[in-house]
Specification:
The structure is a single chain. The chain is of the alpha+beta class. It folds into three domains: 56 residues, Uridine Diphospho-n-acetylenolpyruvylglucosamine Reductase, domain 2, CATH 3.30.43.10; 133 residues, Uridine Diphospho-n-acetylenolpyruvylglucosamine Reductase, domain 3, CATH 3.30.465.10; 113 residues, Enolase-like, domain 1. The protein has twelve helices and twelve strands. The longest helix is centred in the C-terminal third of the chain and has 27 residues. The radius of gyration is 20 Å and the shape is globular. The relative contact order is 0.11.
Length: 358
């Protein structure tokens, strides 16, 4: 049985306390949200913090708030507040919605406003793992999910037997031995959706607050996979106000539940009548970051999303997709599924738009 190593467990009640605890612990400290990623990694000795700082008791991180709308209870930032997981209905404010990083995946998937106005977010959340782990896992935790690889996500003894890998304790990437970088993949379901939607992440440190686009939060590197500094906390995700656009998310995995994606496709379209005015297509689980495919998006912009445009977009996504031998299934089949799933996502959005226009 794999066991956790010894560590000090801290439970701050405010952001200020959490940030100070991390400053005191230095490199030996790590934040934890739901723990569904960190604790298994600690058991396998992938991550070995001496101090674990739990964020679950910090007030305000588990709320969903309408931004830019009068009325209701407001916080210090002027945002209308709700309870931890629900009840908020009605229209979304002019600035969209702010979702606290400690909102559970279950709460995110079941929230009335999220399901109504951001169905791609709700779908991605409810496709993650199992009900039990969705009750524990959080939005922020999934967005900061450690990159994964068949050679990395093994026990300490197994990794030691192959002389470890570049990502932890070794000097070589077993996926691409001649490569100077790690090729572990980003397996977050919510990350490609947030990039496609153009969401913003709010990060807080002792130096203050900064807001960055979701696309700038990630690096295409299996080790340095986020731009978040070790002392920063992701406190919220700002979703743009709905209006004239639609999005969806499709996930490929071996089993219908539990498994991480071997491919995720997030598609976002902004409509101008029957024409596609703008588009974003983002692939998950094929690179160390959510990989945008502007060539595929450009193939449908200015069209009515006819069959030719859909086929062209799928082919455009197929070309740059280069899945590595570090997750499930064969490489050639996974690459072909990129084309198929991009087309399916666009056909779904076309069908919804046609239905809405009736």
């Amino acid at each position: 049985m794999l066991r956790l190593p010894a560590f000090t467990y801290l439970q701050p009640k405010t952001l200020k306390q959490a940030l100070q605890m991390k400053a005191d612990a230095g490199p030996a400290g790590m934040y934890v949200a739901g723990g569904t990623d960190l604790y298994p990694n600690m058991k396998r000795r992938h991550q070995e913090p001496k101090v674990v700082i739990a964020l679950g008791r910090i007030r305000g991180l588990g709320t969903i708030a309408v931004r830019g709308k009068d009325g209701g209870r407001t916080g210090q930032d002027g945002q209308r507040r709700t309870g931890r997981t629900g009840g908020m209905t009605g229209e979304v404010g002019a600035q969209g919605v702010a979702v606290g990083s400690m909102v559970t995946l279950t709460g995110l998937a079941s929230h009335a406003v999220v399901r109504t106005h951001y169905p791609a977010v709700a779908r991605a959340a409810e496709l993650i793992s199992t009900p039990l782990l969705r009750n524990m896992g959080t939005l922020g935790g999934n967005l900061c999910l450690d990159t994964r690889c068949n050679y990395y996500n093994q026990t300490y003894e197994w990794r030691k037997a192959i002389d470890f890998c570049m990502k932890k304790d070794g000097a070589i990437c077993w996926v691409a031995p001649s490569s100077p970088r790690c090729w572990a993949v980003n397996s977050s379901d919510l990350a490609p959706v947030m990039v496609a939607l153009g969401a913003e992440f709010v990060l807080v440190s002792q130096g203050g607050e900064r807001v960055i686009p979701a696309g700038r939060f990630y690096h295409n590197d299996g080790i340095s996979y986020v731009t978040k500094q070790p002392d920063e906390i992701v406190t919220a995700v700002r979703l743009p106000a709905p209006g004239g656009w639609d999005a969806t998310y499709l996930k490929l995995r071996r089993r219908g539940s539990f498994d991480f994606p071997v491919l995720g496709v997030a598609a976002w379209l902004r409509w101008d009548g029957s024409q596609v005015a703008d588009a974003r297509i983002v692939l998950g689980a094929v690179a160390s970051y959510p990989q945008g495919v502007p060539e595929a998006a450009n193939a449908v912009i200015g069209t009515d999303l006819n069959d030719d445009a859909v086929e062209a977009a799928g082919l455009a996504a197929f070309r740059p997709s280069k899945p590595m031998d570090n997750t499930d299934f064969g490489l050639a089949w996974r690459k072909e599924m990129t084309r198929q799933y991009v087309q399916r996502a666009l056909i779904e959005l076309r069908g919804r738009h046609t239905e809405d226009a009736r």
